[in-house]
Write a structure and sequence with these properties.
This protein is of the alpha+beta class. The protein has one domain. The protein contains 3 helices and 9 strands. Strands 1-2-7-4-9-3 form a 6-stranded antiparallel sheet, with no helix packed on it. The protein has a 3-stranded antiparallel sheet with strand order 6-5-8, with no helix packed on it.
């Protein structure tokens, strides 16, 4: 993944260490993935996997975030027709906005997802397999720039 694009304003220490970033993945490439999110065998997804070599899984709703993982790394694929504010996630008491093409990375398991107000829209996301050593490299980099 494009972790080298992370900037100091993407990293937060409070209330728990986390990354929240929306400028990591090229919007044109994201749009191609979004358009083909119903078919993970599509060429665009195969190219994504080939380029980054990381495992991932598509979920239909953010209520399904797997908090049993050592490092939680989610990439939001907000429905284009959903015009809601999107403050649907609470991370250790802090509201996190569910925005398209945005990443949330944390070790914290203190994640609560609010029930959606409009059942017409899905809240899909990709959960990436982020190894501990990669998370450690990200944290080391931020220790140097924060």
């Amino acid at each position: 993944m494009n972790w080298e694009k992370l900037k100091s304003n993407h990293f937060f220490k409070q209330p728990v260490e986390h990354v929240y970033a929306s400028t990591l993945y090229d919007i044109a490439q994201y749009d191609k993935l979004y358009e083909n999110s119903g078919d993970l065998q599509h060429t665009t997804w195969q190219e994504f996997y080939k380029k980054y070599g990381t495992g991932f899984r598509l979920f239909e709703d953010i209520r399904d975030i797997d908090t049993k993982r050592e490092i939680i790394c989610v990439w939001f694929f907000k429905d284009r027709n959903d015009r809601s504010g999107g403050e649907d996630i609470i991370l250790a008491g802090k509201k996190i906005t569910y925005r398209p093409n945005t990443f949330l990375i944390t070790e914290s398991k203190d994640i609560k997802v609010l029930e959606k107000k409009d059942e017409y829209f899905r809240r899909p996301f990709i959960q990436l397999d982020l190894p501990r050593n990669v998370w450690g490299e990200i944290l080391k980099r931020f220790d140097k720039i924060v």
